[in-house]
Amino acid sequence: TFWMNNPLATRSLKDNKLHQMKAAVKIGFRVPDSIITTKADDLMAFCEIHGGEVALKMISGHVFNTGDVKNLDCVYTQKISMEEIKERKERIRWCPVFAQEYIPKKAELRVTVVNNAIFPCLIHSQESKRTLHDWRRYDFEKVKHKKTLLPAEIENKIIKLMQQLNLSFGAFDFILTPDDEYVFLEVNSSGQWGWIEDITKMPISETIANTLANPPKS
């Protein structure tokens, strides 16, 4: 039986960015330096090491209701300073904080992978203040989405990571730095692709359908 994706494989990935990051490092990807802590002093030391600013994010994706079922939202990645951490120092011990070094961005990428077919989309997130720190805030009027090409080295690493994680579908998120370095953020085993296909015209859904109709031989 062919799965896209096997539930046993996706269970270990769901809500587990640390597992993904460890696997990505083994493949050879650069990942952001990260910390999970309930100790304010540790977070401040981490922030100081990385220039006084870090990215604060959820360790797992959650949506919440802002009024009714039509108003769902999520917690977006934020850039916070040492001063902001100090202001909230007493609150940190009540809930684990997931922080990463803040990596300057030239752009970002959503790379949709179906079996061995790779569909890279370059997201010009730095063209809008709204999407500077998290492109999921969506500003389609200002933020261009373009089909792009990846270096062969990055494509090979993506396929290796897919194989290592036992995935047949994955939606990868990368940062492209000003020096054109690719930084792995995460892979979503059930990530959205519809808007990418609508804008770029890459045949993602067709490839999914063909893969399900003609599954690869194990």
Automatic annotation (TrEMBL):
Q: Name one GO molecular function term.
A: ribosomal S6-glutamic acid ligase activity
Q: Name one GO cellular component term.
A: cytoplasm
The record places domain ATP-grasp at: 21-213
Keywords annotated in UniProt: ATP-binding, Nucleotide-binding
Question: In terms of domain of life, where is this protein from?
Answer: Bacteria
Q: Tell me one Pfam family matched here.
A: RimK
SUPFAM superfamilies the record matches: Glutathione synthetase ATP-binding domain-like
Q: Which InterPro entries match?
A: ATP-grasp (IPR011761), ATP-grasp_RimK-type (IPR013651)
User: Please, one GO biological process term?
Assistant: SOS response
Q: Which PANTHER family match?
A: BETA-CITRYLGLUTAMATE SYNTHASE B-RELATED (PTHR21621:SF0), RIBOSOMAL PROTEIN S6 MODIFICATION PROTEIN (PTHR21621)
Record protein name field? ATP-grasp domain-containing protein
Lineage, broadest ranks: Bacteria, Candidatus Joergenseniibacteriota
